[in-house]
Amino acid sequence: MKTTHNTSLPLDAKGRGVGLPLFDSATARNPTVADLSTVPIDNINPAVSVAADFQILTDANNQYTYGVPPGS
Q: DSSP class of residue 11?
């Protein structure tokens, strides 16, 4: 799949894509097709449009706050 084979679109250890807030480049890796079963495709590739831009806004000790980012 083209989205998971694009090496310019890494995921971090928590499944956040490079364009998302809180992306941790220290744990970046290339996505796999298996990631599609647990990670939203628009986290892997932000160019993929979905109806609602609902994502993790903050992460405090694995306590996530979800919402729509400003300007979305």
A: B
